[in-house]
Amino acid sequence: MIEFQNVSYTHSKGYGVNNLSMSIEDGGFTFLIGPTGSGKTTLMRLIYFDLFPNSGIVKVNGLSSETINRKTIAMARRNIGMVFQDYKLLSDRNLYENIALPLHVLGFPIRDISSRVDEAIELVGLEGKENHFPDELSGGEQQRASLARAIIKEPDVILADEPTGNLDPVASFELVRLLETIHETGTTILMASHNYNLIKGRGRPIFELKNGILRVR
Questions:
Q1: Total domains, the chain
Q2: 43, 123, 147, 181: which has the highest count of C-beta atoms within 10 A?
Q3: CA–CA dist 87, 139 (Å, integer)
Q4: Which CATH number fits the domain that encloses residue 197?
């Protein structure tokens, strides 16, 4: 479960989030909408324990921002996959190497890495692109590669921060459908977007952030 209890985090130019309380159940799929600068990225960084609240408590999978330490942060992040709007793929590594990187960092055996990467590539529909470098892929392909890298650890939670922001409408729809397919395996997903038309009518909870204040639509 992801839980915020009266959480505030202040940037130099104002609130990132302001006295925010919410919860997302295990296995849920929740959309987070709001304009640029509304606090969506701040909220996700708090879940990832990349930021810590000025007041209030963030709890993720039983770990609390009040008591977590460096060792348990690393453990928490093993169970969280991040998908970024700007992909964050390494330009000097091919698709296979980019997707495999988290498993190398975690010390997985080579034979396990190979099978996991093959499964992730197949799931996101990038078979045959293994040796392509990021600049040889379309925006939609790069974003699917970013998603494959996020799921390679088999995380409990996926945080997708504006993953369709640089994609055309068709690629955006396909990415949301891919996230829904991954969600069907039991993965908890929180996806941020400023495009309400993309996510409305999908039968998912929608949280709206505006000036750091949350409401449920």
A1: 1
A2: 43
A3: 9
A4: 3.40.50.300
Residues 6+ apart with CB under 8 A from 87: 134, 142, 143, 145, 146
Is 115 among the domain residues?
no
pLDDT-derived band at 35 (thresholds 50, 70, 90) equals confident
Q: Which is nearest to 188 in space by CA: 64, 101, 61?
A: 61
**Cα gap 200→109, rounded to integer Å:** 42
pTM confidence score = 0.92
Tokens at 100, concatenated: 């495999």
Residue 11, C-beta contacts closer than 8 angstroms, at least 6 positions apart:
42
What percent of the chain is modeled with pLDDT above 90?
80
Beta carbons of 208 and 216 less than 8 angstroms apart: yes
Closest C-alpha to 7, from 50, 55, 49: 55
- The answer to whether the CB of 76 falls within 8 A of the CB of 60 is yes
